Amino acid sequence: MTHSNTSALVLFSGGQDSATCLAVALTRYGRVETLGFDYGQRHRVELDCRQRFIDSIRTQFPEWGERLGADHMLDASVLKSLGESAMTDDVAIEMTEAGLPSTFVPGRNLLFFTLAGALAYRRGIDVLVGGMCETDYSGYPDCRAATLAAQEQTLQLGLDSMVRIETPLMYVDKAGTWALAAETGGQALVDLITEETHTCYLGDRTQRHEWGYGCGTCPACELRSNGWHRWKADA
User: Fold this and answer.
1) pTM (predicted TM-score)
2) Quick check: 25 and 189 in contact, CB under 8 A?
3) What's the domain count of the chain?
4) In which domain, by residue range, is 126 found?
5) Contact 128/11 with Cβ under 8 angstroms?
6) Residue 173's domain is classified under what CATH number?
7) Phi-psi region at 40: left, alpha or beta (left = phi > 0; alpha = psi -120 to 50)
8) Within 13 A of 2's CA, how many CA atoms are on the CB side?
9) 75 Cα distance to chain centroid
10) What b/e sequence results for 44-72 when a residue is b if at least 16 CB atoms lie within 10 Å of its CB, and e otherwise?
11) Sheet hosting strand 68-75, strand order edge to edge
12) Mean pLDDT value across residues 101-125
């Protein structure tokens, strides 16, 4: 059911998960805007993908395009200046002594939702939508449902606003994410996500697989590939 009087701001990175969330939001809300962040990520090619994806949504899904409003981009490069990670620097992707992968960027999602909340307040937007997930994830503590529930409460108190955080993929694995895309927008959306989103941590757009572009070996590519094959096997 579409909530025609409710607006949403989708944290859209240009990756598979947030692209799927954007499509879901466009079926649910009367007005949808998008927000991206440049934080000095190694895979900044995703920032190019996100614009192509948005443009394609407008042309290939005109009924969604009518609801798709402004796109915003914010500078979050302060995250890179706080210290190295495999997401922002030429650092090996491995487990650290802290028990977290070196791709973990401390405070990233907390900062993203703080900035998104401030923008939503200015824009009169009711709901923040993110692609965070506890099912197929790398152990990032800022992707957990409990973390985001606390963040939602903090935003409501700090902004004196009933802004909500929604995470449609929180308990959905990657196979389920592909299935949700197919359910939401059919083969056309699956094809668009395959071709015009980017997940590979290394930013590799030179290798094309049946599930999309990427190095094929980093944890993000493995998740995306395994999810694709599980979805295809169950389809």
Assistant:
1) 0.92
2) no
3) 1
4) 3-234
5) yes
6) 3.40.50.620
7) left
8) 13
9) 17
10) ebbbebbeebbebbeeebeebeebbeeeb
11) 68-75, 29-38, 3-11, 127-129, 164-166
12) 88
Smallest Cα–Cα separation from 223: which of 101, 54, 124? 101
Write the CB contacts of 33 (distance below 8 Å, at least 6 apart in sequence). Answer: 7, 8, 9, 10, 68, 69, 70, 71, 72, 123, 125
Between 80 and 127, where is the model more confident?
127
d(CA 7, CA 113): 16
Structure tokens at 74: 């914010």
Per-residue pLDDT of 117-160, as tens digits, reads 999 999 999 999 999 998 866 678 888 999 999 999 999 999 99
AA identity, residue 178: W
* Cα 222 to Cα 226: distance, rounded to the nearest angstrom: 6
Predicted local distance difference test score (pLDDT) of residue 56 = 97
Separation between Cα atoms, residue 223 and residue 144, nearest integer Å: 18
